[in-house]
Amino acid sequence: MTRINEHYLKLQGSYLFSTIAKKVAAYKIAHPDKEVISLGIGDVSQPLVPAVIEALHAASNEMGQADTFRGYGPEQGYAFLREAILQGDYLSRHIDLQADEIFVSDGAKSDVANFQELFAADCKIALQNPVYPVYLDTNVMAGRTGEFVQGAYQGIIYLPCTEENHFVPQLPKEHADIIYLCSPNNPTGTAMTREELKKWVDYAKEHNSVILYDSAYEAFISQENVPHSIYEIPGAKEVAVEFRSFSKTAGFTGLRCAYTVVPKSVQVETAAGSKQSLHALWLRRQTTKFNGVPYVVQRAAQAVYTEQGRAQTQAVIKGYMQNARVILSALQQAGLTAFGGENAPYIWLKTPKGVDSWTFFDKLLTEAQVVGTPGVGFGSCGEGFFRLTAFNTPQRTQQAAKRVAQLVF
Ligand code: MLT
Q1: 316 and 278, same domain (yes or no)
Q2: Atom 4 (ligand 1): residue with closest C-alpha?
Q3: 326 lies in which domain range?
């Protein structure tokens, strides 16, 4: 009989958002008269901006003409998009990178999930608790953990992010080879300052570790002392890979486009001690396993960097951050303590005393018909917390906020 990769059997239940979707679907069937509002999965509600739509139309027309039609594109992305990213996100912030250090892809989730395959099976992984489940689950699948015992995978270095440490991961005492950091953070909605991030870059340099830095929510940063890129920190180009996405920045969750920066200066080594370039390995991986993002989608992403594209996408983000303020104020009215929502589209609320995350989920769904995400779904330190997103429409967010404000705990 064919044997399976048994590491998959160590995974806990189904993917968090599938579990929630199933629960909500069952509730809707049982209560067809109730209008459910989702502040659950971080999916955008606003349509693509006009500059992006124009670029999509123009590129579609090109695809219908013999002289402008394109077949397979470069696996790492078209030069026009890589140059736009380089200029718009890095050179303009005085970060010196090269266009061929940028790899365009169809999503930060898949990139961050795939990246771990470049590392040895016995690499020691450190990640935040609570955490975006993809970092952890993909390492479980790859066999880089032991069994799940009492709420934790053996072999993983968990970095607790709690109210006491303001949800900022603290340096571990032991050695970590790979460190996943997400800032602004999903799920806590908090962000690391330059000083806090510098500690991690220094740690990685000292320990020869690699930081996998998920910066998918960079466009939501409002505070000056929060870096937009890890490469703002001196030395980060030797130790960090950065993941960015157009999903939340420009409403591309359905269109699919993201990019990963792998500086050529990040070195890793073989068991025998020979130095290897992480950039070369990722390039080899992508050219073997990936055929690139559709031409029309890359043209759409390029349009985000035009003057109009920037102004239009920033206006949408402003709207989401206004939603965040509406949610924060409703939670305050309900007497709940909440964090985040200032540099990220996520709000991390503390459930009332003695109420666990899933009980809170049920209460919100059945009494207010509002869907959120139980904090414990992101890890044991998320127990007693609950995540709401600011991505719904202003009208539905206000409706949801009104219902939440009236809840009695
Ligand atoms: C979330 O709700 O955490 C996000 O939708 C996850 C993602 O971007 O994949």
Answers
A1: no
A2: 42
A3: 6-47+310-405
Mean per-residue pLDDT, 47-68: 98
How far is residue 384's CA from residue 350's CA, in Å, rounded to a whole number? 6
What letter would DSSP give residue 408? -
User: Which atom of ligand 1 lies at the shortest distance from residue 389's CA?
Assistant: 2
Answer yes or no: is the C-beta of 109 below 6 A from any ligand 1 atom: yes
Sorting pLDDT into bands at 50, 70 and 90, what band is 354? confident
- What is the number of structural domains in the chain? 2
What Rg, from alpha-carbon coordinates, does the chain have? 21
Choice from 44, 132, 252, 347 to test ligand 1 binding pocket (greatest atom count within 8 A of CB): 132
- 25-40 pLDDT, tens digit per residue, is 999 999 999 999 999 9
Residues 43 and 103 in one domain: no
Structural tokens at position 148: 């799940």
- Residue 141, CA distances (Å) to 18, 121, 131, 146, 166 in order: 18, 11, 16, 11, 31
How far apart, in whole angstroms, are the C-alpha atoms of residue 372 and residue 353? 18
